[in-house]
Amino acid sequence: MHDSPAAGQLRRGFLWLRFERGLEAEYWRDHFEQGRLQLRTGFLLAVVLAAAFIAMHHRILPPPDLPTLVLRYGIVFPLLTAGFAATLVAGTGRLLRALVAVAAPTVVVAVTALVLLGERHAGQSVFPVLVITTMFVYYLLGQSFYGALRTGAIGFVAFLAGAWLIGLAQEAFAYQVLLLAITNLVGGTVAYTLEAARRTAWLEARLLAEMADRDGLTGIHNRRCLDAHLHAAWQQGIREQRPMALLMIDIDCFKPYNDRYGHQAGDEVLKQVAGLLAQGARRPLDLVARYGGEEFAVVLYDTTRAHAAALAERIVAEVRNLGITNAGSSCAPVVTVSVGVALVQPAPGRRPEGFVQLADAALYAAKDAGRDRVHVMQDEYAQMRTGFFEAPRRESA
Asked: Quick check: 301 and 285 in contact, CB under 8 A?
């Protein structure tokens, strides 16, 4: 799993709570999609508590003035309600993240203003409401640690400025500032720990999923993953009108090698060949997989005949250059491979199974021509009948 981004990130760690760019984007997409129920609960609880506090304020405070009404019903309630509504619609992770990033600091500033207005006009302290709101920001609104810290800092600065503007009593000011600072400190510490734990769990879950798609011996992708990738890439190729290439690679005379040198030596050959193949397909939609036994497959998306053929020739040369003795081979004194290349343009009405069939036919053409070589097929795809490959097959030995 040395080529796994998740494994690499776990090895390097993430002290600053940041993954590499691709993983970071996937993490937040999954966070807001998979954590939708938790966010829904948080927003719903925020709406209920806001309603409860407003009802309580109506009983213990004088009738609200216009600024108070605007803050309550023009800012706080609409934003919390919009956040809750967004959690009810699937596939809105990006919108939900943007909404939280805007709503959290706006609500904190609005609540700060409401608290200070209560202090100024009614002489009643409802400061605990601001403390509870700050804790909500850190734990229940799905923000990143940095986003929550930024929101907490905005609320703290807003409180300092507002308290100075209304001339809050020195004793009350000192007490409330200290309590708000402690709330942010505790909230930030716990938020950092929680996010670090969530990120670790996400990486581990991703790594487990990747391991399920890997061949246990060679570490490259397995047949199940190859089939799934082929079907997905095929559909994308139809949509984007992009050509695809499939390289089928077979180790020549592998059975005699196993018979002569033993299966452990054969396993080492498989690992070395897989390692070479993995170096040649590193683009996001390319894939290297063990097809079965001593056969491998390489999928190349949006490629050309020249590139696919050049990669196949390079694979043949690099395997030969490994110099692994194979006294039982009929084509060379060292381990070699034969490569069949199929190049097609995915189209509606055709299936990826035909793509595999064409690559398979190309592979056996390479083997019938003497092994240790490449054979490319492209135009044959138009006349081929998927599922009716009957080319003569010799023992791969």
From this structure: yes
- C-alpha 270/C-alpha 219 separation (Å) is 10
Asked whether residue 75 is assigned to any structural domain, the reply reads yes
pLDDT tens by residue, 223-233: 999 999 999 99
Integer angstrom CA distances of residue 198 from 41, 100, 145: 18, 18, 11
pLDDT for residue 395: 42
Tokens of 355: 């793509």
Domain span holding position 237: 223-383
382 pLDDT band, cuts 50/70/90, is low
pTM for the model? 0.70
Query: Within a domain: residue 395?
Result: no
Evaluate if residue 396 carries a pLDDT over 80: no
DSSP secondary structure letters along 4-16: -HHHHHHHH--TT
Q: Confidence class of residue 21 from pLDDT cuts 50, 70 and 90?
A: confident
Instruction: Examine residue 277 and state whether it is found in any structural domain, yes or no.
Output: yes
CB 206 within 8 A of CB 198: no
CATH number at residue 296: 3.30.70.270
Distances (CA, A) of 277 to 131, 221, 256, 281: 58, 11, 23, 7
Average pLDDT over residues 78-82: 91
In this structure, the answer to whether residues 195 and 49 fall within a common structural domain is yes
| Separation of alpha carbons 254 and 328, rounded Å | 9
> For residue 297, what are the contacts with CB-CB under 8 A and spacing of at least 6?
226, 246, 247, 248, 249, 287, 288, 289, 290, 291, 359
